[in-house]
Amino acid sequence: MKKIKIAQIGVGHDHAISGVGSLKQLPDLFDVIGYAVVENDDSNPCANINHPNYDGIPKMTVEEILSYPDLDAVLIETEDRNLTKYAIMAAEKGLHIQMDKPGSQSQEEFEQLITLVKEKNLIFQTGYMYRYHPAIKDAIKRAKSGELGTIYAVEAHMDCEHTIEKRKWLKKYQGGMMAFLGCHLVDLIYQIQGEPEKIFPLNTCTEPELIDGAEDYGMVVFRYKNGISFAKTCANEPGGFIRRQLVICGTKGTLELRPLEYYTDGLISTDTYESFSGNAWGNTPKKSVSVPQDRYLPMLKGFAAMIHGEYKNPYSYDYEQKLHSLVLKSCGF
Asked: The CATH number of 4-128 is which of 3.40.1190.10, 3.40.50.720, 2.40.50.140, 3.30.1380.10?
């Protein structure tokens, strides 16, 4: 099988180091020809433009990358505000795109990108890695199949404890944490329940004077015809990472994924608890533990399979556009 020639544009995203590191773990699929540092990459406190994952990969300009002979694809890992801008530049060159989430906060810019990739029939994958996690995929499949009955609530948490510097960085984005990590949760809820009837963004700041009012506590409530769902994400929560969770409530059963992810020897695992109606007060949930796996490799393997025509992207251009719009509304736009 022909290797996919790929380059990384930007090193300013929180996933940039993991992205290039995962590409290097897939030498049979990808030929990494270079990477470029772009404006604002160094403004993200979590970015590391000199990380060892870039060792052995040529440092190039964006222009050199976009004019590279027979280049097939790009990984867009800029600081969040520049994601869509550079994805558009790649689309104009006819390159397949793996762009990290969630894209810039310009709806017009994102719509321009979607129009381009549609017209050119390009593979367009966004960096929502939970989409490729077996335990999460299985939970969503079971919810959609009707096994849990009518779904009336999805409760999603994605919390952590960031530095003061990182929390101040969130002020660059309306919605703060909702834009940064809440987008993952909005994607999961949207997959399960579709578009809500009403959206109530409740983003706020836990320590206004310390971090200049940056919205480090993200919350959005979605009203559906038969229930309420919510996404909550906080950057100032001790122990928050291990309390990340996804709870899917139906009239016949409940699935609780908690912790949503935790590390075992550098790999990610998930614990799933399932409860079904019939023993309301004495029910002991059935527990299962997912096989540990890399956080990003399944996503990039899927990207390669899409490019080779072995796998159809389950997330359409229209889905990505509607999701982006929903994320913006959740951020208070």
From this structure: 3.40.50.720
